[in-house]
Design brief:
This protein is of the alpha/beta class and 360 residues long. It contains 16 helices and 13 strands. The strands form two sheets. It has a seven-stranded parallel beta sheet, sandwiched between helices. It has a six-stranded parallel beta sheet with strand order 10-9-8-11-12-13, with helices on both faces. The longest helix is centred in the first third of the chain and has 19 residues. The N and C termini lie close together (11 Å).
Length: 360
Amino acid sequence: MKVVTVVGARPQFVKAAAVSRAIASESAGRLSEVLVHTGQHYDENMSGVFFDELGIPPPAHNLEISGGSHGAMTGRMLEAVEKVLLAEKPDWLLIYGDTNSTLAGALAAAKLHIPVAHVEAGLRSFNMRMPEEVNRILSDRVSSLLFCPTSTAVLNLAAEGISHNVHNVGDVMYDVALFYRNKARVHSKALSRFGLVAKGFALATCHRAENTDDPDRLRGILVGLAKVADRMPVVLPLHPRTRKLVADHGLGNWLNQLTITDPLPFLDMVALEQAAALVLTDSGGVQKEAFFYEVPCITMRDETEWVETVDAGWNCLVSADTDRIVQAAEDALTGRVARHAVTPYGDGHASEKIVAHLLG
């Protein structure tokens, strides 16, 4: 049985590493995988180094499609992925998450009557202004196998009338966290490189269009991070697009109080997440990783798909409001928030369950 896997962004490389490892380990050798990289994240720090560190084989097809508007990018990917599928003739198309690469792969396969398996199905922010929400809803609608990371995701699909071939397998990101956490501690030199002390700094990320495209929201976040930096160093790996928009909006001065770096290799990011006293982010994946490593998280968005982390007290939603960011950081660092030990993301074997379902 042949599976074509479509990835394009660094969170997808991480998830694919776990499932690809499970496919390769399938004892009877009943599955083969063809990896397609759309090129959505194309530079070395956002792509190549992830493949190296995660042990993912080079993609069989690199489409080298990046940049442009959402519609233009998705359209070009759709055309290119369709050509790959016509040539490869797979039994399954495997997609991850909610990017333009996800949607392009789903649509290309659906129109060729190739069954689609969606990892991270059922996530909902209930904010249709987010391109990710549109991508995930449409991908779920055309998928034949829906792999949910949580019971909440299963309920979301049921509310939309989707209940056939829906499986709560757990979160592949939890598989990844368990597999790489010790390796990151041993091999990463990020702490010493940035002159950091474990639990003596905060780690931040900011890349979502809802924040970076809006000068007021971006200013609110940067000012908030700068104020947190009055208390402890704040490390901000800066997405290339965010760096450009900071300059375009005339907000570069706020970066002077932060430790700015290019996007980090995977193991460095995992090492910093584990060692941070606090994580501030608008990333879905980083929220969960903070939770896995028992690090308080402040999410600079109006909503989150990972409601379990909020309910358990490990995550706080603050929008892009400077005062709320600063207050939440103070509350987290002084232990004013009650946190509960919960395990909503499975048992660390989601990847093996996915492979079993693909084999039927």
